[in-house]
Amino acid sequence: MNPRDYLLESFSVAVKAADPTQIVPQYLPKPPRGRTFVVGAGKASAAMAAAFERAWPASAPFDGIVVTRYGHELPAHTIRIVEAGHPIPDRNGEYAAREILAAVQTLTDEDLLLCLFSGGGSSLLPLPINGISLQDLQTVTRLLLLSGASIQEINIVRKHLSAIQGGRLAAACRAPILALIISDVTGDDAIHIASGPCTADPSTYSDALAVLERYHLDVPPPILKLLRDGQAGILAETPKPGSPLFARTDNRIIANAHQSLVAAENYFRALGFNTLILGDTVTGEAREIAKSYAALAREIKSYPRLLKTPTALLSGGETTVTIKGDGRGGRNTEFLLSLFVELAGVDNVYALACDTDGLDGTENNAGAILSPDSFNRAKQLELNPAAFLSNNDSYTFFQRLNDLVITGPTHTNVNDYRAILIL
After folding, report:
1. Same domain, residue pair 307 and 353
2. Residue 63 to residues 40, 164, 335, 389: CA-CA distances in angstroms?
3. What is the helix (H) or strand (E) element at residue 74, kind and residue range?
4. Which of 223, 255, 287 is the last residue of a domain?
5. What is the pTM for the complete model shown?
6. Backbone angles phi, psi at 11, to 5 degrees
7. Domain-located, residue 369
8. pLDDT tens digits, residue range 95-142?
9. Same domain, 290 and 312
């Protein structure tokens, strides 16, 4: 195989390490005396539900509802799979969330609420709190996504606009709760995954208002009124840490970015590469992170005392993109295009940046790949990488080079995977 093949195979290895079909059965509990109600939300939730059905004892009664992104549905026999909007919530998600909340309220202490959450669940499980509409929620979501706010900041706002997130699903349930979670957030804190339907929420209405102010967002008046009423104590806060509501709730992270990076590291070591994991919690502007990585690659290539080549630099996490242009592309292609600009044709450096869910932002690609000959091909096509980067048009740039990585939905999600090979 050539280095491009190594990169693509390493991405497959990283994705496989977070495969719900292999992971979910390891964490399933014994069936309760009553029935098990399965709920879920996220890009991996349909695959998690299918894995549950295959592993659950045939004699133990269950049913449920799981919401996943359009195009991510997998066949399930008993659990109903609903497809809904992501990253902008829609009516399908709202109706499913309303039905889930109503069903959970009927469970008894002899039943079990089994939750299957993964990245994307915040958008897929919208249930606007009284006083705001789905359209209001859609508007504020768009504004937040364009602002460059981190997912943690976005979810602080979402939780305070939701009747089901921020611990409110757990608060509505009398049955014991087990939440199995595939993490797509830095730090693997369950409060941020699907906006924490079953976790205590330490954030406040004041924190949500601070996020809107920090990014100077002009949100719909009902949103602002609701948050200010909450800040004034007119509305009840989300359930907080220490609340007895969570005494019978167990949130378990069953897969995360670090596991996938270790799997990729083992793959490269078996090929004879020296490896360095730069972190699974990398955040910040994608193009700025790329500048740092390009500098490190240059250092290793010029002065291999740090790491002898061949070297594989691996990282995960979730970068952000502040939209200033009108082009196409997600944070992974934005990262890679910035890396392209910074490396400026350095020999023997290859790179890949992809989202483990198979979709980079709202595009149809997982990400893209970069090799030394990419620079020559760009010159031949008279492509100006800096101009494409300035217009946030990384998708078009790598599409013109035929360097997009297209996998389709992977049915898992542990966020971004980046690998840089220095030969």
Report:
1. yes
2. 12, 19, 42, 48
3. none
4. 255
5. 0.90
6. -65, -40
7. yes
8. 999 999 999 999 999 999 999 999 999 999 999 998 899 999 999 999
9. yes
